[in-house]
Amino acid sequence: MASRGKTETSKLKQNLEEQLDRLMQQLQDLEECREELDTDEYEETKKETLEQLSEFNDSLKKIMSGNMTLVDELSGMQL
């Protein structure tokens, strides 16, 4: 394992960035389609997406506390 985790760290960062991008795009799409949805459907979908973002944030915190090599990069994503 000559990379000493660099490959794994890079892949993890890429996966996290993609997940965050998907969640943010989902919120943006939801806002753009708001008028096409009934109020309950909009509120429920928004709530679910915000819960997913919260879970994502919790995962970032766990990763940051357990792997100090990722702290700086993940802190920027969390903001």
Any key phrases for this structure?
79 residues; mainly alpha; Protein LZIC-like
What topology does this entry show?
Layout lengths: L5 H27 L6 H28 L4 H8 L1
Helix pairs in contact: 1-2, 2-3
GO cellular component, one term: beta-catenin destruction complex
Organism: Odobenus rosmarus divergens (Pacific walrus)
Keywords: Coiled coil
Mean pLDDT across every amino acid position: 83
- The arrangement of helices and strands along the chain is HHH
Radius of gyration: 16 Å
Straight-line N-to-C gap: 32 Å
Q: How many runs of DSSP E, i.e. beta strands?
A: 0
Low-pLDDT windows of residues:
none
Largest sheet: none
Name the overall outline: elongated
Instruction: Tell me the number of helical segments per DSSP (H or I, 4 or more residues long).
Output: 3
Helix % is: over 70%
Structural class assignment:
mainly alpha
Strand coverage percent: under 5%
Could you provide a short overview of the structure?
The chain is an all-alpha fold and 79 residues long. Helix content is 80%, strand content 0%.
How would you portray this structure in words?
This protein has helices at residues 6-32, 39-66, 71-78. It is an all-alpha fold and 79 residues long. Helix 1 packs antiparallel against helix 2 and helix 2 runs antiparallel to helix 3 (71-78).
